[in-house]
Design brief:
Helix content is 51%, strand content 14%. A hairpin with a 2-residue loop joins strand 2 (140-142) and strand 3 (145-154). By secondary structure, it is α+β, with helices and mostly antiparallel strands. The protein is globular, with a radius of gyration of 20 Å. It has helices at 11-27, 30-37, 45-54, 73-85, 92-104, 109-117, 209-245, 257-286, 290-315, 327-337, 344-354, and strands at residues 122-124, 140-142, 145-154, 161-165, 170-175, 180-183, 193-202, 204-208, 247-248, 251-252. The longest helix is centred in the middle third of the chain and has 37 residues, at 209-245. It starts with 10 loop residues before the first helix and ends in a 6-residue tail after the last helix.
Length: 360
């Protein structure tokens, strides 16, 4: 008989949150993130170094025996909430979660330790929109070399090693300098996607892609909900703060009943999202009903994050529409996240099959 999951944050998790939030306040302030997105080099590698070298956060999901911290998905989820709250342009979800989970299904302790240290950034060469269990393009493996073209690969522009699924069923490690990576136009300026061309690139066989890739995508989808929670929570908190300060007819705008109702509705949605995201993280940590918990979280998360970001933009009025205000970054992240690792519709369909409640 399974025990009831405890979805409250532990003292250690709250301490981790405070430490990550402090670090991001120093490294990822809104003007800095905005300036970086316009600079052509969106990734903040200094913030990444502080998170990984300074705090060891890239190795949270890696056992201590393999060079990691030996923590769980619950701790990684707390980190992702804060990264979402700051729309931090770091490859945490793609390297420390998705690529790391793929390696945990393989026999590649040396590479796992490199990713856990944060000194090597990994990216799974599967398009960002692919859902757990979904189909994805494979490259051709021929005489020890890999040939093919893959698109929509998140954070490939900053990766040192790509984990590439091939048509022989294997998952291969390919050094980034052996392929051609071309950035594609991306709505989310803080998580760019790229085209990867392999023209006879040498690859090291790591393990079975059919085991590793679904595991990696499931963890990505489940913990993405915590990032979406961070985005939504920022949008709600900042909007409430702004409406308390902004005056119209000599009274705070937040005092108008119609706006109170909108904010109350949004607060309820964010609270429900927190429960769904925490449940997904806990299920991934314990392995109990993880497929169901991830599908539930992702069936709900996208609409809340997008709604929160849209309300932030609208209720900030004219200031929210300007390029100097960070609201647009949150809306773009929320929109991009809404199709990352599967759409809400794809997850609802998966959930219907998992609990045997198909549509009539």
């Amino acid at each position: 008989m399974s025990t009831q999951p405890d979805l409250l944050y532990s003292e250690e998790e709250e301490a981790l949150r405070a430490a990550v939030r402090d670090l991001l306040a120093d490294h990822c302030d809104a003007p800095g993130v905005i300036a970086r997105t316009e600079s052509g080099t969106p990734h903040d590698l200094q913030a990444w170094k502080a998170l990984t070298d300074g705090m060891g956060l890239a190795g949270l999901l890696v056992p201590e025996a393999q060079g990691g911290q030996g923590a769980t998905h619950r701790e990684a989820a707390v980190v992702l909430e804060e990264l979402g709250r700051a729309v931090a342009p770091v490859p945490y979800l793609t390297s420390a979660v998705v690529a790391t989970e793929a390696l945990l299904a393989c026999d590649a302790d040396d590479l796992l330790a490199e990713l856990a240290s944060g000194r090597t950034i990994g990216a799974l060469a599967v398009a960002l929109n692919v859902a757990p269990g979904g189909a994805y393009p494979l490259v051709r493996h021929e005489n020890g070399a890999l040939h093919g073209e893959l698109t929509g690969i998140a954070d490939a522009v900053v990766a040192d090693v790509l984990l590439v699924p091939a048509d022989d069923g294997g998952l291969y490690a390919v050094r980034a300098d052996a392929v051609t990576v071309t950035e594609q136009v991306s709505l989310d300026l803080t998580r760019p996607v790229a085209k990867v061309v392999l023209d006879g690139a040498p690859g090291r066989l790591l393990g079975d892609a059919e085991t590793a890739v679904p595991r990696a995508l499931r963890a990505g989808a489940g913990l993405l909900a915590s990032e979406q929670l961070g985005v939504a929570d920022w949008a709600l908190t900042e909007t409430v703060r702004y409406l308390k300060e902004r005056k119209q007819f000599n009274r705070p705008v937040g005092g108008f009943q119609a706006l109170k109702h909108r904010l109350a509705q949004l607060w309820l949605e964010v609270v429900n999202l927190r429960a769904a995201a925490r449940n997904a993280a806990d299920a991934l940590a314990t392995g109990e009903d993880a497929d169901v918990a991830v599908a539930v979280a992702q069936a709900y998360a996208a609409s809340v994050a997008v709604h929160a970001a849209e309300e932030a933009l609208q209720l900030h009025g004219g200031i929210g529409m300007t390029w100097e205000h960070p609201a647009h970054l949150y809306l773009k992240r929320a929109k991009a996240d809404s199709i990352a690792y599967g759409t809400a519709g794809a997850h609802r369909e998966a959930l219907a099959g998992l609990v045997d409640l198909q549509a009539p």
